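Re-run with default settings, no changes from the original entry. Doing this only to confirm the output is reproducible before filing.
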Amino acid sequence: MQFSHTQQGRGMQRFQRACAYLFSPDHARDPRFLETLDEKMVKQAFRKKAKQYHPDLHGHEARNLRHRRRERFVRIKESYEYLSLKIHDHARPAGHAPQKTREKRPVVIAVGGAKGGIGKSLFAANLAIYLSRCGYRTVAADLDLGGANLHLYLGKTRLRKSVNDFLKKKADTLAQVLEHTAYGPELIGGDSSFLGAGNIGFARKLKLMKAVRKMDADVVVVDLGGDTAFNVLDFFLSADVGVVMTTCDPASYLEAYAFIKVALFRKLNRIFGPESFYSGPVDPVLRRMIREATQTIDNSAVTGISQLRQEVRDKTGSGLRVLDQVLKQYTPFVIVNKAGDTASALPPVQRIQKVCRKSLSIEVPYLGCLPFEPGMEVSARTLVPFVTTPEAAPYAERLKTMTEQLLPF
């Protein structure tokens, strides 16, 4: 980044001071480093420093140490905002109006599961807050259209706008219905108070899925309903990363497997749909075989996906390649919530993985477990997100480990 004479003096000193906070004093004094500085470097440095100094991620430390981290983090955040603004202004040609550009589309993380009351919305809210505090521009989207409550766990008791304004064409874009929260992420809230809120047509659903993927954000965390309705399944399948939540309760992990299975069947049946990755010609033989294998009342047409693969191989050559591509792409993560300890979380996960491997011919990665936290129930009642409380340091560490697996950057 080149500096003119007008940028010397106090302006240059402030720029170097910000670089010292965000990078190091040596970097701030290095002219070659300052010339190559760009927005990507600034963003990456902030994320690294946020993990190191954000006080909420070090709740186990003494109060005076957390206070010092908080003061340091304030300086780091101010430096990040100042450098981002200066670099952005410098990159814009003089006399030209600012043009909003987006380097990439967001990573969409969908949180689902076929059983209610296991903590999906709480997890989605806390994950969104954690990602925001790590420096990612994060949007929390409530797509549980029939039972929207994500806003409550982000400290919002009232919504001025919701996703319904976009669906009813009262807003042209999702950006126009965003609500700011006090805890970092922006929110696309839901409103289930009118008849038919959870039942939207396929065209509007497709429009909503496309709009989510075009948002100006780093990450979008999507909270879904606790069932296997087509809307829920389609939102889950449209995400880049799918997370299926369960607990150690047998009813819960059986429902988690059911969700994984039904979502896969939905994905197979939508191979030739407009939302699919596939853009080739329709194979009527493959479509019929998939329908017969997945939509019979007792699924008696085949005993598993492996048998379906064998029959597709025998009757249609190119269809097997398409089928295998779908199976390869479908790798939902499993997370165990409210676990007594790490060891108790493993048996239900291993059961899910075993039956998925045997019956569905897919691998289901284990994302990790979250311990039972009494403070989580308190935070749900007080509407203060748990990850922002001092006792949440171990919980934040679990989120850190999960985030490293979920995000490609």
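The chain is about 50% helix and 10% strand. The mean pLDDT is 87.
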